[in-house]
Amino acid sequence: GPCTECSCSSGKEPDKDPSHTKKKENGDRLCVPKIFFGTRTHKQITQISRELKRTAYSCVPMTILSSRDYTCIHPVVSNSSNRNEMCVELLEGKHGKSCSYYHGVHKLSEHHALQPAPRVYQAWDIEDLVSLGRKLRACPYFAARELMVGADIVFCPYNYLLDPQIRDSMDIKLKDQVVILDEAHNIEDCARESVSYGVTEGQLRAAREELELMVTNSIRQEHHEPLRAVCCSLI
Questions:
Q1: Which residue intervals are annotated with compositional bias (Basic and acidic residues) in the record (predicted)?
Q2: pLDDT tens for residues 61-84?
């Protein structure tokens, strides 16, 4: 049946506590788990959020995690081939500039259209977030991450859940949470990809030359000798 805590059924203000902890009678803290919904492509997330909109749960707090390729709106960074690096450089202020969109992120994450409220709020997709971000001149990428704190359901591509490096960088904690994987037969390929690394013959030859230089100059020979042997055998 409908959850009595849900703001959409009670007509009350949504729970403002971002960690969604509720007290149990014996003093323990009971955590309501988040649902992490992993899909193969970003396109599928759009389809699923559209379906969510049609259900009785369209007013549940949610967010969609996706890459800067889909959510960066900075005029220079979004047209660059290495958006991640450029974004980090801007935020670190390496060239004396910063990103005004990033500094306006709260305008988007706190916007009433994204705050669950009865009869007002609707499930949204990446395009909705990006167009609202453009309107408010605020960063959709970081707004989506901020919204994860209070979200009951988090949509994201598989690799955000499977790849430990992405999990860490996105601050995703899966312990005691609910994980749903859509079209789970694709998981094997995705898992293989996240622990695979492509290398060219040219890179191998360059590495072998550098290692040879180390060995002939007796620099940590015991470490570099076996690495050189691996490069040789692969070539």
A1: 12-26
A2: 999 999 999 999 999 999 998 899
